[in-house]
């Protein structure tokens, strides 16, 4: 039985994607300048990976080799901000999916919220610096930012006051409801205020103003243009990662990275998008409490690092190899090469290549100088890889 399978993966061409990042990473042409937003690696029915089972047959879905994987690994290239969004927990996903199925709503309907019955916690790891917003800041800080934002304009103060009153009650849910109950004229007024402001200060930074101006230019009349005032804004550096649990409002703003999640495509959107926005349903799944995402930073000297999260369906690991390196454990895994090249299982894999390692009784040896990300969802741990083995050992090569 084969142990190593080269993956052929599908690209998602969402409008927020980049025409350059993923093509350059994969070393492929994109003469049409289509936006390459995501490359999916896994068995999700929305874009299943394919493998060559043997040399005589046409490629088949990866699921034929390994069954349904509990995780979905992606390359994600963010040229324009993604929508403000959150994902349901398992119970919410099951209930929402069942309700929409029973209503007869097509799975491909643009107003569909639940594409499956699974939850979608996720971890994002940066390949280049990635800017994102995630989690409500505390109500007092939001209140201070809104008061500063509305200073000098009586009209804006009147618009903002219901939100400030909600925050005085320490209620993020009342604040959020007031924000999205604004009239079209009030939303236009907020965007005009953003466009008129020039610089930041100790309360609202230049970075926050810059983001709000960008959002206001892309989505005039969307109350989510104020999101940099109520969400944490941060930038993670290459190899750093953040874990986003269910119910946490977030948006990825720019950059290129690896994203790992459970095998789900359930997204509840709250703005900054031309796609379907369902504020009522979003509010049912949101956690209306402050949340500061923790940045996971591997030591620069480590050649092997596991990004620990509370999610039991997957584990992401970074691996750097020189010479001969034994991949840890014999559990099934999906790998994507980010630097250099390696030989294993009779294949040569270069930067941008991805492959599936089937479960086996013997260790799997990688030969070459490389770095890669690996994920497994069957055994929520990897052993530390061994190095420096003689290539003539009786090991799978």
Largest sheet: 9 strands, antiparallel
Uncertain residue segments: 386-397
The oligomeric state is single chain
Total strand count, please? 23
Give the overall pLDDT as a whole number: 90
Form type: elongated
Examine the coordinates and then state which fold CATH places here, giving the name of the CATH topology of the largest domain: Jelly Rolls
Number of H- or I-type helical stretches: 10
The radius of gyration computed from the alpha-carbon positions, rounded to a whole number of angstroms, is 23 Å
| Structural class category | alpha+beta
* Helix proportion: 10-25%
> CATH superfamily membership of the largest domain, which one?
Jelly Rolls
What fraction strand? 25-35%
Q: How does CATH name the architecture of the largest domain?
A: Sandwich
**What's the N-to-C terminus distance?**
14 Å
Number of domains: 3
| Name of the CATH first level of the largest domain | Mainly Beta
